[in-house]
Design goal:
The chain is about 30% helix and about 20% strand. The mean pLDDT is about 95. Helix 5 (about 135-145) links the parallel strand 7 and strand 8 (about 150-155). It is elongated, with a radius of gyration of 19 Å. The protein contains 8 helices and 12 strands. The chain has helices at about 20-30, 50-55, 85-90, 110-120, 135-145, 170-175, 220-225, 235-250, and strands spanning about 10-15, 40-45, 60-65, 80, 95, 100-105, 125-130, 150-155, 160-165, 175-180, 205-210, 230. It is α/β, with parallel strands linked by helices. A 6-stranded mixed sheet has the order 2-1-3-5-6-4. It has a 6-stranded parallel sheet with strand order 9-8-7-10-11-12.
Length: about 250
């Protein structure tokens, strides 16, 4: 019996995820690579407490991606997590090993780093991350590994973080990269954008939005109008997805 004759199930864990990049990406991948007994579905659960039942109900489940709002919340339910996931404090990839144990990984930082390095030959020395969720922690991990100083802005800032109303001219001029890790601007709420002072954006800034739908968010559109370089989240998602696939097949 060949490998393809054993049904293998993969999926995305999240909440309100009908828009799912991952489901479309992997479904197309399986079709293009003629993996006929491979499938990828959305596990759209209302509460993370339901996670434990997923494997019982889906015995062919091999691996899973994780998105908002469960990248941090899923960790206590896992048997083991990678060192990078421990440092980041978030998981976006889960696999079941041969003994049925769950292992959590983070491939977001890999996707972010690869996408950023493709966009610019000059790595940033100082960056501002908008948002403080699981994705922001992966971006911080990646940037600090590159030797970049990281600042945070949030609508509810904690100590050593900036409120959006505190992003003044000197601070904005000292930053080369601004990364939106919030969901503001995601379809269908495409008119939304993080409330940063866009009048202070200029041509030396690179705006990186982790959102991929729409392709040009209001955040990026505002940057383009001020002459900034821009990058959306599509390539990051592709790279993190391919790393997930590698982990599931190791």
């Amino acid at each position: 019996m060949t490998k393809e004759e054993h049904p293998k199930l993969f999926g995305l864990l999240g909440k309100n995820i009908d828009y799912s990049f991952s489901r479309n990406y992997f479904s197309n991948k399986f079709k293009n690579e003629n993996l006929t007994n491979y499938s990828y579905v959305n596990f759209d659960i209302k509460n993370i407490d339901d996670f434990g039942e997923l494997k019982k109900k889906n015995p062919n489940l091999i691996g899973m991606n994780v998105t908002i709002p469960y990248k941090k919340a899923v960790i206590p339910f896992l048997d083991q997590i990678s060192d990078e996931s421990k440092t980041i404090g978030a998981v976006n990839t889960i696999l079941w090993d041969s003994r049925g144990n769950t292992i959590g990984h983070n491939t977001d930082h890999i996707g972010f780093e690869k996408a950023l390095k493709e966009k610019t030959n000059t790595l940033p020395k100082r960056a501002l991350i908008l948002g403080t969720g699981g994705a922001s922690a992966a971006v911080q991990y990646s940037l600090e590994k590159m030797g970049c100083e990281v600042l945070f802005a949030s609508r509810n800032p904690k100590p050593k973080q900036y409120g959006y109303d505190k992003l003044e001219s000197d601070l904005m001029n000292s930053i080369e990269l601004i990364v939106n890790t919030t969901p503001l601007g995601t379809f269908p709420n495409i008119e939304e954008a993080p409330p940063i002072p866009y009048e202070l954006i200029h041509s030396k800034h690179l705006l990186f939005d982790l959102i991929y739908n729409p392709i040009i968010t209001r955040f990026l559109e505002n940057g383009i109008k001020k002459g900034a370089k821009t990058l959306n989240g599509y390539q990051m998602l592709v790279y993190q997805a391919e790393k997930s696939w590698e982990l599931w097949n190791q």
